[in-house]
């Protein structure tokens, strides 16, 4: 079996894996980082979004071996110690979740969106950018408001 090495949430990891192991399964089953969810296996729902080398990607169709020497951040690695990341705090404050299944992917997508587009996001841009993320519980209104608030909070924290 091939060996894959990468940094996950600032920790170096090296494991022998099957060549066809998806990143989402590597994170969940091998590393026990279960915040990244499997929703559809077809890149339709976005529940599996993580950051690879600073870019938001859907881990359900990314081979773990393609992340050799990459820097991977999951929802577990987004916060610093006990302090929530500004986007996580905004989702909590603005009730941008219900059942919570899509929330990790929504938050990771939102952080990626802010890093790509900046902190001054309008509602239409946010809705367009969330096209690849499905929430079956909400009407997206609170998610959009949470992302706007989280983006503004990230503007106040350049390290976020």
UniProtKB/TrEMBL annotation:
Domain called 2Fe-2S ferredoxin-type: residue spans: 2-78
Keywords annotated in UniProt: 2Fe-2S, Iron, Iron-sulfur, Metal-binding, Oxidoreductase
Domain of life per record: Bacteria
InterPro entries assigned to the protein according to its UniProt record, in alphabetical order: 2Fe-2S-bd, 2Fe-2S-bd_dom_sf, 2Fe-2S_ferredoxin-like_sf, 2Fe-2S_ferredoxin-type, Beta-grasp_dom_sf, Diverse_Oxidoreductases
Keyword Isomerase attributed: no
GO molecular function: 2 iron, 2 sulfur cluster binding; metal ion binding; oxidoreductase activity
Gene3D superfamilies, per database record: 3.10.20.30, [2Fe-2S]-binding domain
Protein name: (2Fe-2S)-binding protein
Species the sequence originates in: Rhizorhabdus wittichii
């Amino acid at each position: 079996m091939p060996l894959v090495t990468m940094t996950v949430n600032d920790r170096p990891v090296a494991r022998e894996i099957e060549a066809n192991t998806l990143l989402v399964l590597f994170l969940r089953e091998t590393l026990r980082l279960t915040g990244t969810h499997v929703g559809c296996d077809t890149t339709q729902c976005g529940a599996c979004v993580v950051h690879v080398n600073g870019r938001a990607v859907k881990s359900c169709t990314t081979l773990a071996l393609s992340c050799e020497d990459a820097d991977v951040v999951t929802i577990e690695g987004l916060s610093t110690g006990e302090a929530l990341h500004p986007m996580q705090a905004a989702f909590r404050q603005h009730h941008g979740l219900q059942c919570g299944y899509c929330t990790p992917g929504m938050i990771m997508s939102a952080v990626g969106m802010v890093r790509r587009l900046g902190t001054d996001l309008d509602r239409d841009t946010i809705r367009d950018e969330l096209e690849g993320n499905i929430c079956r519980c909400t009407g997206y209104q609170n998610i959009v408001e949470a992302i706007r608030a989280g983006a503004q909070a990230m503007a106040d924290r350049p390290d976020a």
